[in-house]
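Dear colleagues,

As part of the handover before I leave the project, I'm documenting each prediction I ran so the next person doesn't have to rerun anything. This entry is a single chain, and its sequence is reproduced below.
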Amino acid sequence: MRLPVIEVDGKRYMDSRAAARLWNISPRTVARYCREQRVPGAFKDSGGRWCIPMDAIRPLTDSTLRDVLILTLHLQANPGYAIDYPGLGINPSELGQAYTHLALLGYIQEFDIATPSPSLPFEVKLTNRGVDLVSGGEIKKTQDIAEVLQRWAPAIASIISRLATGS
């Protein structure tokens, strides 16, 4: 497939329509990925169109990002486990790219690119942003529940006390 090329400072870029055709997603989704800074090196030109590096890879979905991070934590806790690549939706050869993408997005700390792909899950470290993605906001939900209980605890204790004393 021949894509229209945008050249800026000697570097080659494609617009969001070309990336959409290449990645088999909508131009709107490409623009959203760019706005969310999920496409490393993408920027808006003076005309307001997205310029995406020609070698950019399609960003992983949130669920795939979360799955890779969860898998990483499981493998680090259980080194004897094997990776179910088909279940994860990633080819073994793409694992290095996936981790590079996760590092560029700030979900894991930068790592030695020379690390062999099969070793990567055991070597990388999650950042706070990665932990937040894996937790899916559960920590905030737990804090919210704790706040509600703390707020209502005196009233609940009073009701229980009255019931127990029969007053």
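The chain is about 50% helix and 10% strand. The mean pLDDT is 79.

All the best with the project,
I.
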